[in-house]
Amino acid sequence: MHSARYNEPNGQREGTGFLTNKQKVRSRNKTAIAVGILVAVLVVAAVAAILIWLFVFKDDTDPTLSSQRQASSQVFSGHMKLTDYTYDQKLEDTSSQEFSDLARQLEAQLKSHYQKDELLQQYYTKSVVTAFSEGVIAYYWSQFDIPPEDLEVVPEFSEERVLETLEAGIKETRTVPPSAIKIREITASLTDSRMARTPSARECFYTLEATENEDSFTSPGFPNAYPARSRCQWQIRASEENVISVDFPFFNIEDDCTERFLCRLRTPPLFYMVFTFMHFFRYCSEVSSLSLTSTTNELVVAFHSDESFTDKGFSAEYSAYDPQNPCPNQFACLSGLCISNDLKCDGWNDCGDMSDEVKCSKSLLLTFEFSCANGLCKPKLWICDRVNDCGDGSDEKACNCEDNEWRCGNGVCLPQDVACNGKQDCEDGSDEASCKTFPGMCSEFSFKCDNGQCVNKVNAECDRIDDCTDKSDEAHCDCGTRPYKLNRIVGGQNAELGEWPWQVSLHFMTNGHSCGASILSPKWLLSASHCFITNSQENRIPSNWQSYSGMQDQYKHDDVQRRTIRRIITHPDYNQMTFDYDIALLELNEPLVFGNSIQPICLPSSSHHFPAGMSCWITGWGAMREGGQAAQLLQKALVKIINDSVCNTVTEGQVTSRMLCSGFLSGGVDACQGDSGGPLACFEESGKWFQAGIVSWGEGCARRNKPGVYSRVTKLRGWIKKETGI
Fold first, then answer.
1. Cα dist. 364→344, 346, 350, 358 in Å?
2. Which of 98, 410, 657, 708 has its CA 20 to 30 A from that of 580?
3. Residue 304 falls in the annotated catalytic set
4. 20 phi/psi in degrees, rounded to 5
5. Residue 136: is the preceding peptide bond cis (ω within 30°)?
């Protein structure tokens, strides 16, 4: 919503003058005019009020009205290698008849190929051949225009789909008459639509011929102001046996580089420079960073390209230091990093090589730190958490209770007689989780059969043993399996196709992936309330959401089942401030068809026990680092359930009984923005996968001592059954 302020000219009040009819206007006429003006003003005010309500407030209160959506243009560019075609030097001249004739034939072929795909042919606009080079290689781009009412199909316009369509068309044309132009190879890459220019364009479009002599070119208006909203292209050509070398002495742009292609680099003459390059090239993303050291104040970047791509770039960050004093007023790690002195001996591996956590004297240890037997120091929160944090096991020694004591799941020791007394003495209820001495006793930790019988056994459901006389504990176990497996999450790795068949991607309007969800049944999905209850009413409208099941790559929709949402049911007790009861159910308009890559996950009973230290998995397409971009490929990461006492401590008492913590207190692995609503899946000895949690909230992503917080499914199991019958 925009606000505006209106000012009167010259600082004077706005005035209106009325001309008299030769000075003969009578008093009653003045009164009539005044009344007329007043009525007119009231009418204008009423109309203005209606318009303001309609276009400003109505959009927020009436979910049926939303802001107009703009059409989308999807552009793909690439090159084609022609076979049995003699190269003509005249093809380098875009105004020649030879160029026009060959370009027209190839453009017609591209159009015919797109006609073979039902989706592509529906929105196809045009193809343009922009240049030829020896080989013979033709460079082109194709445009598809999607109107506002069809924007939900935008994610289906993937590079893979376009390329497969073109390659299929090329195979068919190999049987055409010899006189026809044959294409033996073609590429396609998603391109910024602003880069789509025709060869005849003369608006800031330049064709340069590289020669042996050094030449230069500048942007329009250099060194003064450049035209507003100008987009320029330079096509540089050279003969096949030569190499083009382009030097940019300055990348002069404004501070905000988000809408620019080049960023300014300025390095003062300091001692040593460390340059870090972050690559944004699509096919070089596995090289996330490269650090170099230079003794000069110059940065030279050499690019080598074997393919034709557009809209790519790089970013460089640099720092300077004096080799005699590399870390002034800081601690110098053996790895070369500089960290704050406060991070020395704080229990965390800030240097990356543990050099800040060795030789820690007791005087340096803080009150909340523990000294390992090997000299390392670790947070006291890690003592007796069933994880060997020290490396020598010293943090897990002396953690067992006496013979006459019962050890709770959170490590607390209580008298032995607290076990199976029908009362919850341990915070996590582990003293009542498995009570064979009282097989008929019913408590909140018992598994309740359909016939009312209680089974005091840890995780009795779906363990392939009939514990209930009516066998109801094994009646609903067609879930939690991964048929395909029979043959970035922060700190995670790419997931394989079909590895997490219950994972769902939720797309909001035309914004692409927004939240995750899990499959409970053919018509029900499980997600988080905070994905839908936001400041915008549009998030609560089911028709604004679409679900994608069986997806691994956000750009590949083969065998992916897309479903629209019929109903969004958020928990009535959901609290936007605390994220308590952060759970939501989604009913699909059309049921899913289960297969190798689409399966439901098992819901645990309310008595199901997920012990602290248990390894579980988080999955999703969320950001792979805090503040980063969403992942294209489904990410997975192994995390551990953190006991409730530690969880409550590190979150400063912000967790409720409907929440649980999972991750690593050391940080580095966590869910992040975009993973919300996704499942925390745990594998049981029975061979089934159960959903222990729903990605809910956290402080940042993968920060140390700030684990992820999840909605605890066992505490919300009754509500799920009431709403879905599952």
1. 8, 8, 16, 11
2. 410
3. no
4. -85, 155
5. yes
Say which of 530, 557, 571, 608 is annotated catalytic. Answer: 530
Number of Cα atoms under 13 Å in the Cβ half of residue 176: 12
What's the rounded Cα separation, in Å, for the pair 525 and 348? 39
Residue 102 pLDDT greater than 90, yes or no:
yes
pLDDT in tens, 44-86: 555 555 554 444 444 444 444 334 567 889 999 989 998 878 8
DSSP code, position 191: E
279 a catalytic residue: no
Give the separation between CA 225 and CA 235, rounded to whole angstroms: 23
Residue 75, Cβ neighbours under 10 Å: how many? Answer: 22
Long-range contacts of 290-298 (CB under 8 A, 24+ apart): 295/271, 297/267, 297/268, 297/269, 297/270, 297/273, 298/267
676 flagged as catalytic: yes
- 205 — phi, psi (to 5°)? -130, 125
Task: Give CA–CA dist 325/327, Å, rounded.
Answer: 6
Q: Within 13 Å of residue 253, how many CA atoms lie on the same side as its CB?
A: 17
The two tokens of residue 495 are 């997931």
| Look-up of token digits 């580095």 | 668
10 SS3 class:
helix
Say which amino acid occupies 186: I
Please tell me which residue in 582, 644, 670, 675 is annotated as part of the active site. Answer: 582
Question: Active-site residue among 597, 676, 696, 711?
Answer: 676
Please list, in sequence order, all residues whose beta carbon lies within 8 angstroms of the beta carbon of residue 678, skipping any fewer than 6 positions away. Answer: 503, 515, 516, 517, 518, 618, 619, 620, 622, 671, 694, 695
Q: Please give the average per-residue pLDDT across 441-456, as a whole number.
A: 77
